[in-house]
């Protein structure tokens, strides 16, 4: 804590300044980044979005996207100008109905100057009219828009939104969404949430989707192509909509055999994590060449390649687990990725127990024993891995090992109470690793700083003594590989994903 000595004259000036009405406070530009050390230019400062209304028209043959985005927001400071994260070509911007001037800067910044400065705490409506070819746009040397033989797909982490709509592109600013997409008849447009309606006219069909719970921008998805769509309902009453590209070829059967179990898996996970947090569920498999899956909210994205060796139900478990850990409760900063990936991977371990293919304890013992102390696996700190290692295997496997160490330290009663209580406490909000540690301490009544430091924040293998204390290392003998291990490992594979998580550059299979 820094203490500042204020002279009497300065104190009087400060009191006078506080007496000035907020409406008279000076206006200044909003920051071009939200303040995340991993990605300093991601997100923006000065406002908070509550709703996105996206009205789009997409031509699959040419990959041309035309749109009008309406953002409903509120300022958090007096603004003379502000930024949106966006890459397509903008034709017009209006702020509160009046035309605004705009320019571009950096890799993906749209700088907007309203006709009249905006007061702090004021409601604001921003309308952006735009068009462009998403696959032709790059930021930081890559694209998050995946061209397919019959259309295109927006799905990537930590960024994808800027390729198809303007926004405040960081998980700290979650919002609800209406996504309306006009596509040629015979083509489908898939997005998050519930399908509100479809209508056709003059050779075009409009698909209207709604996400009625707060959603991070990277979790918003759009897929246009020719899909087979299946619908159903879980035992708990949640509607399920799955979509499969019509040209998946030999992967089609395995993809369906996996993703059609989504409802069953969500109901099973609810026994561990509490009620499913949304009013829609499903998944989709477009004909992309990526090697990863992504927990796009209510409707995860799956790459066809992940079903090359048959069904992969463990992968579905991972992505549906994210609906609680990562989507419902989102990270505050990208360094908090362990809360997303460690617990989604641990859900796979619980599924292994459920299937009788190895307990979570056996999987933890295997992870600990299979990586010697000089393995680079231990140099990645799951609690703060750095942007270059954000999706490294260690974040998943060492991350789940840390979860098992926590379970052993506090006991099953407290542990499973935490698994259910965490999504309830921070529902539809954001939280950090430090928040999770404090919550675990509160529910368990145990100090956990040392345990978290050992298993999440040290760039070295926990000692045998530390492992024995956490009931992870077996006393002597060889640790056998659980039967589920190959299935679990197949969901992350090499973890090469190019710059900023662009799976197009990878040659392995990934979960996120």
UniProtKB/TrEMBL annotation:
Catalytically driven reaction(s): Release of an N-terminal amino acid, Xaa-|-Yaa- from a peptide, amide or arylamide. Xaa is preferably Ala, but may be most amino acids including Pro (slow action). When a terminal hydrophobic residue is followed by a prolyl residue, the two may be released as an intact Xaa-Pro dipeptide
Residue ranges constituting the Peptidase M1 membrane alanine aminopeptidase domain according to the UniProt record: 311-455
Domain Aminopeptidase N-like N-terminal: 50-219
Gene3D superfamilies linked: Neutral Protease Domain 2, tricorn interacting facor f3 domain
Keyword annotations of the record: Hydrolase, Metal-binding, Metalloprotease, Protease, Signal, Zinc
EC number: 3.4.11.2
Extent of the signal sequence: 1-24
Cofactor: Zn(2+)
Homology family: Belongs to the peptidase M1 family.
Protein's recorded name: Aminopeptidase N
Record organism: Streptomyces violaceus (Streptomyces venezuelae)
Higher taxonomy: Bacteria, Bacillati, Actinomycetota, Actinomycetes, Kitasatosporales
